[in-house]
Amino acid sequence: MVDVIITGGTVVTPVGVGDWDVAVEGERIAAVTEPGVLGTEGARVIDASGKIVVPGGIEPHAHIGGPRQPERSGAEPVSKAAIHGGTTTVLDFANQVPGHDLHHALGEAAERWQGNAYTDYSYHPIFTNGAGADAIGQIPELIEAGYASFKIFTTSIRPPGPGMQDNKTDFGRLAAIMDQIAPHGGMLLIHSEDDDMVHYNYSLAPERDQWDWWNMHLIHSNLSEDVSFRRAIRLAELKGSPVYFVHVSAHEGVNAVREARSKGLPVYGETLHNYASFNADNYREDHGMKYHTYPSLKSESDRRALWGGLIDGTLSTVATDLVSTTWEVKTKYKTVADCTGGHNGIETRMGIAYTDGVVNQGMSLERFVDITSANAAKIFGLYPRKGAIAAGSDADITIIDPSIDKRLELSDLHLEDYSIWVGWHVEGWPVTTLLRGKVMVEDGRLLGAAGDGRWVSRKIADEYTQGPAC
């Protein structure tokens, strides 16, 4: 028996775009059919006339707060904002801490999410500085248990200080991690910057008069991104490991990913919607640190290169690198050495990508689905359960109203007391969201509850770990 029918909308599926009806039975999509074929008796009918029906968004890169990071928003408020913004699955991080293994990290992540989620969720374990052989050796068993992806940093990001955990992984350990990732079907996320260059820039920043936050792009530089990406790609090529570069920020990173993919290497790139919409000039505004996410915003030409990569297929996903804090916390620190990273953009990701990508730059609806949902599902082992409107897939569905034409106000959003997107002109916005067949948000009204979301086991298909398949 069909429980829900979405009718009248322009539906984006893996085989094309059409004016189809979508039938939901229980938690799954039962059928995508020609209009009027399905009987409506006993079914809830959602009229999507004039709207666009896409798979629920997948946020591949979010740092959710917990007991060790009380200044950050937790799973309940973040996932509530995500579901309002059309995102139905969030991939958080499980942070290893010195003296503990990856199981401990996953346990902490589960405590944050269980019973608190409006979205489905999973975690990427992050290796800490000096990770031992025992932790690295846990990779195969965790992949088998449904945790398909792991993250490392090639830099400690900021100068040492109180409360700043050093997560830098040296290239010796990186090689050992790749040795475990490659044969067992995992995916390795890399925050890739050249640590020597970054900290050399920090050491000279005072005498160069570059200590204020608006110089961040001179510390976390284009050159650092270029050198570090190419070094990591070469190691991955030798080890046969797939890699996913998080938050590509410069044209050098785009070019490095493009060249690797042209050689058939399983290399993927992600950028952020704030990187694709703002540039380093915005740092000069009053409270311009509000735009900052590590590594940094770059130039206007870099910003354009990011959009070029998203449109032409070089970059696979758009994410947020969410670290959600209050305005007070976000603007508290004012130097290149302590500026707070991350921003609370999980609700705006899909809407901004639609406006700036589809409306303003002519991105196809199929490509929009790729960068906001389908590719993340494929790369991280959720596809086709997630990321597709197709029979048998989870009924994670977002309906976008393209007639919405306005400037965003803080009252339109649902997370924290500020947003860098206030005042941004949008044309089209998510209005209705289903999670596994349940209507969570309808015409902007929240109907779901914390606890509706579940942990999702992940297994990556071989085609995505052996070549640049998406």
What does it look like?
With 470 residues, the protein is of the alpha/beta class. The protein folds into two domains: 4-54 and 389-446, Urease, subunit C, domain 1; 57-387, Metal-dependent hydrolases (TIM Barrel), CATH 3.20.20. It has 14 helices and 21 strands. Strands 3-2-7-18-19-20-21 form a seven-stranded mixed beta sheet, covered by helices on one side. A five-stranded parallel beta sheet has the order 12-13-14-15-16. It has a four-stranded mixed beta sheet with strand order 5-4-1-6, with no helix packed on it. Helix 5 links the parallel strand 12 (149-153) and strand 13.
Number of domains: 2
Radius of gyration: 21 Å
Strand content: 15-25%
Number of strands: 21
Name of the CATH superfamily of the largest domain: Metal-dependent hydrolases
Helix percentage: 25-40%
Largest sheet: 7 strands, mixed
Distance from first to last alpha carbon: 35 Å
For the record, the CATH class of the largest domain is Alpha Beta
Number of helices, counting only DSSP H or I runs of 4 residues or more? 14
Strand order of the largest sheet: 3-2-7-18-19-20-21
Low-confidence stretches: none
Shape: globular
Supply the CATH architecture of the largest domain.
Alpha-Beta Barrel
CATH topology of the largest domain, anyone? TIM Barrel
Short description:
This protein has 470 residues and is an alpha/beta fold. The protein has helices at residues 75-84, 102-113, 133-136, 139-144, 171-184, 195-204, 216-219, 222-239, 251-262, 300-312, 327-330, 349-361, 365-379, 462-466, and strands at residues 4-7, 10-13, 16-18, 21-25, 28-33, 44-47, 52-55, 57-59, 62-63, 87-95, 120-126, 149-153, 187-191, 243-245, 267-272, 317-319, 322-323, 397-407, 425-435, 438-442, 445-446.
